[in-house]
């Protein structure tokens, strides 16, 4: 169980990348008052967490409706996570990170989704929920891991200005690269587990 908790936490942490969200958060909230930034920070984290909970609770029903098996989802999830990892490793800039203000609440879109609770996060949540199927303790661990990651996301955004002053842009860049490397390894492991599962049942 402890291994499941660690895997869920690490996977969500590297996908959602609390250090990496700092420059994006600052770009989207450029010109906002400190009070507005604090409000946007908790709204974005809460939006992303609610989406994760929904897919954790109803992910099985979605897969059943689509007639998708767990190994297939694991392989698809591994591929998507690998693509996210490559973007982190290459430092691919997100064109949506433009400091343009609009009437849309940036806490919901694009911060809450798709930047925080994006495709990679959703796929990982469904896969872990499938692994926790029939194990109440495992599901609680999954939700607990998600809650901790979202608290870290909120803290990163809440103290974004202070953090940038301390670690500078180079520090954020370094942490993002490390997160990308870890995520790539987890993505490959996810696909290997799916292949082993198919081999045993084949």
UniProtKB/TrEMBL annotation:
Membrane-crossing residue ranges in chain numbering: 6-28, 40-66, 72-92, 104-128, 140-162, 174-195
Membrane topology, from the record: Multi-pass membrane protein
This protein's record includes keyword tRNA processing: no
InterPro entries reported for this sequence: Multi_antbiot-R_MarC
Keywords: Cell membrane, Membrane, Transmembrane, Transmembrane helix
Entry's localization field: Cell membrane
GO cellular component, one term: plasma membrane
Protein's name in the database: UPF0056 membrane protein
Species annotation: Nonomuraea pusilla
């Amino acid at each position: 169980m402890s291994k499941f908790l660690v895997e869920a936490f690490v996977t969500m942490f590297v996908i959602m990348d609390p250090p990496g969200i700092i420059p994006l958060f600052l770009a989207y909230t450029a010109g906002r008052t400190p009070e507005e930034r604090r409000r946007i920070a908790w709204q974005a984290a809460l939006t992303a967490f609610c989406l994760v909970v929904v897919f954790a609770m109803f992910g099985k029903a979605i897969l059943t409706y689509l007639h998708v098996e767990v190994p297939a989802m694991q392989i698809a999830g591994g591929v998507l996570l690998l693509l996210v990892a490559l973007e982190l490793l290459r430092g691919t800039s997100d064109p949506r990170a433009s400091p343009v203000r609009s009437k849309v609440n940036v806490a919901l879109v694009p911060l809450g989704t798709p930047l925080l609770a994006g495709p990679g996060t959703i796929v990982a949540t469904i896969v872990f929920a499938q692994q926790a199927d029939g194990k109440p303790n495992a599901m609680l661990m999954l939700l607990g891991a998600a809650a901790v990651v979202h608290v870290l996301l909120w803290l990163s955004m809440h103290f974004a200005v202070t953090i940038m002053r301390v670690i500078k842009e180079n520090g954020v860049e370094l942490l993002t690269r490390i997160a990308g490397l870890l995520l790539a390894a987890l993505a490959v492991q996810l696909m290997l587990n799916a292949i082993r599962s198919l081999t045993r049942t084949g």
